[in-house]
């Protein structure tokens, strides 16, 4: 009896499927495909998979495709058949006889026309039609233009017969453009790609006329959307005359205010904005931009963008994302032509206002698009500012901009307001400088792991670079914006952990961008305000956040610390206080900052400063046990590495060896104690606590050796023989245990 269920056929039926000398049993194939897609058990699915693979690998299977497509009602079965056909077209097409190639070509074309000529079948069978379109484009890559010269005229003629056929023709043209220009690498030879591009170029007039006709005549929203999507695929490469010497731009701008077509239209305009042709089409670009800005202001006022994004639908959010792409593309390529007249400059400044608003949108990808442009924009202004340009004749100045200085100064004057807003943006959205993870190693110890080159760190580097350029362009404004924002933290108007963090990361990021005198004055005010904030703010969590920010900021300004010993000493002693603070993260931050400061200021700690009885390192070593009392092992290692840097800066050998001896006194005592116990009983080295102590002592030695280098020799010579003994005994114990 014929198999009719949704289960895989028995072995006899499987063999019947594999016999391709007669038309394939479509109901059995439907059941096999259904079993593969999950209606049967795991074993049934596996058996179905095996049969389908065998069929795919059979070189004659493609001859059954038309029979399957005509007789199956199952979409997955049709897709399976088309997959077989696609493989033949890709890899065996030119080996097939002409009549077979023509047969496939005509059959696929006929089915597409048949399904897309009827509105109901076109909507119901959309997935199937889309797959047939892909198959047709694969055929075209072989047949057109040489063996199917009339394809574009045929397609355009068919498109005029009905709106649904026209909609599908647009889909085919879009696929064809994408296949040739976007996905062709690796699938076709350069010569073939060149030939197809040339054919599309030469025949684009017909497609262009069709698109304009459709956009002016149809009321079908689906057809308009399909046409706009097709234009978007073509705009990056078509001959420019079709864009600027036809009604195309005006037509696109006509659709922009309509919500249903807004995103597709904006994508088309973005493609146009990204093109460059010297000065030839400047007038058209200015016209396009100014008309676009008038429409945009009616659709979305500039001050409402972050809220509009936060509360918007997917379409509305996509619109703001597309706006970011449009503005960045236009400004990268055409900002200079907008600077040329007062009217255009007004529209340009409004556009920059929009882009700043979009930059506040709470979406990482949108912000990255904006940030990349701001970096380029500010860098260009900074480089021009740095190259002291001679005064220029009045004829070459930007008309209507005050001043008799250079064009550079005029541009800075033009952009003064956007640049000021941009500084505030960078301060408000500054990324975290470094991700530090606290992780547990295989021995159960807590260790620090620094994540390098992650997205946040890359973003921080770009933002830091941008803010430094902005600072150089106007130090006063940068300082005033930061101090004003800090005042808002103090009076509670703008207080939050995130606001304080981003502000302090921004303050730290511009280290070295001001002249020393200005930097000193600025930093004194910042630290004073942060200390006041710490005093007046209640709550342990809040104080911990403020403390970590104080530590971060002072660690970023080594030039100031080196020039002000008393301040440096106060900061380090404050760090020692924080090393006893049990709030999560504070001790790590204190140890990290101590290391960073010591690396930049190490000479200061081994030199006896005015008003001091001894060098700071000696005072530190006297109180060492108390200072590190509350630290975790991984924090002690960081602390010892820091003191190692100090000792390394001492040029007197005797003093350096004495400091090293005092530094290693505590771990050496513990080491001697363990070695003494091991001398009495080797089993002590099997104790987990003792093993952990040995590892910590060795790690402490490693940390100091890292920073001291060759000057670590006196210490290693003390413990070297004992280390070998411990190693030998542990090795023996391991061999005995495992053997």
TrEMBL record:
PROSITE patterns the UniProt entry points to: IMPORTIN_B_NT
Keywords, ordered alphabetically: mRNA transport, Nucleus, Protein transport, Transport
Importin N-terminal domain residues: 48-114
Gene Ontology BP terms: mRNA transport; protein export from nucleus; ribosomal large subunit export from nucleus; ribosomal small subunit export from nucleus
One Gene Ontology MF term: small GTPase binding
Pfam families according to UniProt: CRM1_repeat, CRM1_repeat_2, CRM1_repeat_3, IBN_N, Xpo1
Alphabetical list of SMART domains matching this protein: IBN_N
Similarity-based family: Belongs to the exportin family.
Protein name per Swiss-Prot or TrEMBL: Exportin-1
Lineage: Eukaryota, Viridiplantae, Streptophyta, Embryophyta, Tracheophyta
